[in-house]
Amino acid sequence: MAYVEVDDGVELYYKAEGEGKPVIFIHGVWMSSRFFHKQMAYFKEGYRAITLDLRGHGNSSKVQSGHTVAQYAQDVKVFMEKLELQDVTLIGWSMGAFVIWEYLHQFGEDNIKASVIVDELASDFKWDDFDIGAFDLATLTSMMRDIQTDQSQLLEGFLPLMFKEDLSKEELRWMLRETMKVPASIASAILFDQSIIDCRPYFSSITLPTLLCFGRAEKLIPVAAGEHLHKEIPYSRLEVFEDSCHCPFLEEPERFNMVVDRYLQSL
């Protein structure tokens, strides 16, 4: 197992395969690098394909501090520097999109070739001027309490909402194992931070080519979120996956891999 130390006592687990321009896959809240297992075999043929577990997630260090989107972005910056990665494409799913936008806000676009945003809103919170958000205060509070009282039960209810079709028992089992690797104290802390971050002020300054990938099914994130991003982020392109919900890279992996690859090849 490969690790990179990005902070005092913080090691990030990662997997890297293939040669070429680096492509880093960044997972969502509570998730892990394993959720991108259908991408590695494809992308390693033409890229240096890299998956990582953010701090507190998957096989990375379970430290009790630093669980903010801003810190996760800083961790990614150090990770890239330690591996001496150049001309990087960042692919962010769900919270991973926030990590990308926060990275660009803190560090700019130097050394970043492009970004791919997978099924995320400009903010998960329902602000007074942003009614397509996923959570209001009552919903967020309830979820944080449920994490503390019965994390497994919460996840068993949440994970199926990410998919258009029903999960098999085997699929739900491995996803539950991965997401339960995040201690409840970390799970509630990062849920709060990633749910109230508002990235709308960042978008006008983004000049990177940006591919937006959204599932048509709207159990969690509406397609309107992708349309909003497409309108607000210059040089963006929106791709809608008709047979997907929150995870087009798992629900339509062949099409997802091809769409992302062709987009990157076109730049």
From TrEMBL:
Record-linked InterPro entries: AB_hydrolase_1, AB_hydrolase_fold, AB_hydrolase_sf
Keyword hit for RNA-binding: no
One Gene Ontology CC term in the entry: membrane
Coiled coil: none
Domain AB hydrolase-1: 21-253
UniProt keyword annotations, A-Z: Hydrolase
An example Gene Ontology molecular-function term: hydrolase activity
Gene3D superfamilies found in the cross-reference section: alpha/beta hydrolase
Protein name as catalogued: Alpha/beta hydrolase
